[in-house]
Amino acid sequence: MLEVTDLHSAYGRIEVLKGVSLAVKAGEVVALIGSNGAGKTTLLRALSGVQPTTGGEIRFLGDRIDRLPPHRRVARGMTQSPEGRQVFGPLSVDDNLRLGAYMRRDDGIERDRERVFAMFPILREKRHLAAGGLSGGQQQMLAIGRALMGKPKLLLLDEPSLGLSPILVDQILAAITALKQDGITVLLVEQNATAALEIADRGYVLETGHIISSGAASALLSDPKVKAAYLGAD
Fold first, then answer.
1. For residues 200 and 217, is the Cβ–Cβ distance under 8 A?
2. CA 63, 64, 66, 67 torsion: positive or negative?
């Protein structure tokens, strides 16, 4: 579904992505782990088109998309739930969800909104309230729901558990597993590397702009070097 080849990206003179290559197959949950500053968020932003690339290729469903603007990528079936949620605070929960479907012209928008409400019932209860008044966990649910309203084939999730309580983290991870069962492919950036790899099929380790390791999630979980660097093991 997604093929990234020798991707480069920079902020001014500071190169952040230094030749990243990875692939995501349809139906997978793929985890991207690494330390702070490794380039994980920059990679997701480059994939969705809000961060310029300076070299390499991005192919989505067989077509090259790295020269397309973000809205064209959304129309093709790639949406992102960004780090920090970035919901539209003054707008209602309902309006945030409707904005997620802005590019759509089909008749399934209301049905998909009901699916989001079924996944995150608290959003139904607060559908008429301003998104800025929600708790952090509720805003994260809304950010994921808004991305789902774009009817994605590939969902990019950036730090969905950031700042959440353990109970809410479990709810978010369960939701990601349910998305896979519904046929949505997920590329997951997550600081909680253990939790991410436990629900993923495969994983990549990004360090200072380079992929330094990859493989089955179970293999990465048991890799002594990965354990020592990212999983909190001695």
1. yes
2. negative
Task: Name the burial class of residue 21, with classes exposed (0-12), middle (13-18) and buried (19+) by CB atoms within 10 angstroms of its CB.
Answer: middle
Integer distance in angstroms from the first to the last C-alpha of the chain? Answer: 37
Burial of 67 (0-12, 13-18, 19+ CB in 10 A): exposed
Q: Could you tell me which residues come within 8 angstroms of residue 176 by beta carbon, excluding any fewer than 6 positions away?
A: 29, 157, 160, 186, 188, 199
Mean of per-residue pLDDT scores for the chain: 94
Domains of the chain, residue spans = 86-151
pLDDT tens per residue across span 137-147: 999 999 999 99
Strand order in the sheet with 185-189: 78-81, 154-158, 185-189, 29-33, 202-207, 210-216
The answer to whether the beta carbons of residues 28 and 201 sit under 8 Å apart is yes
From CA 15, how far away is CA 30, in angstroms rounded?
24
pTM of this structure:
0.93
Q: Which amino acid is at 215?
A: G
Sign, CA torsion 214/218/222/227: positive
